[in-house]
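Risk mitigation, structural track. In case the binding assays with adenosine-5'-diphosphate fail to produce interpretable data, a predicted complex structure has been prepared as a fallback.
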Amino acid sequence: ERAREVLAAGAERGDTRLGVEAMDLLSAYGIATPAGEVVSSPDAALDAAEAIDGDVVMKVVSPDILHKSDIGGVEVGVADGDVHDTYEDLVARARNYQPDATILGVQVQELLDLDAGVETIVGVNRDPQFGPLVLFGLGGIFVEVLEDTTVRVAPVSEPEATGMLDDVRAAPLLRGARGRTPVDEGSVVSTIQRLSQLVTDFPAILELDVNPLVAMPDGATAVDIRLTID
Ligand code: ADP
Ligand code: MG
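Fallback model:
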């Protein structure tokens, strides 16, 4: 129901591309996301940051800006004392990039310890012949560089999703190479299946990327989402 609302709200605004404002889609499908909220003033940002232990991550929220870090729209590790200024900076950078950009606000998010995890990507594309294709691979900057991804046709079963983890060359990274603690594979597998279910339930979703899905020893957390709706 909440998922339907998020998609309807986007459609009502006339947005065909959604970003952070669609994070609720993930929680509606039982996918873990970092604590956080989208706010629309520096004061509200500080309240949101104070509600989260330690430093936070702040991101500009705009349907016109889909690659936020490319325009300086993501600040990782912001102390409470810097939240006000960072809010203004993020909005200014977005305006500078595109003066008429619709800015819905700023997302204040819990800071995850990426050293303890592996950034992966789960994506969906619709193929005219096969329907939704689900992709899994290493996330972050590695997606383009390593082209280490694998694809299945949705809906993806549990054995198929497990097979996707086996497929990628980076699999040892997930399984504890070099003395690292192995990530919670079951949680990555169930996230792949839940996203596969989401796009099966909503044919209006043409394309979807969760990048990164941070795979950690204690579970997988979806940090960022981007999707195209019809
Ligand atoms: P975009 O892909 O639009 O540039 P992201 O939300 O994916 O924006 O953030 C870019 C990068 O910043 C991520 O790939 C990740 O490395 C880092 N990052 C984002 N959110 C967090 C977070 N909550 N905790 C730790 N690192 C983060
Ligand atoms: Mg991203």
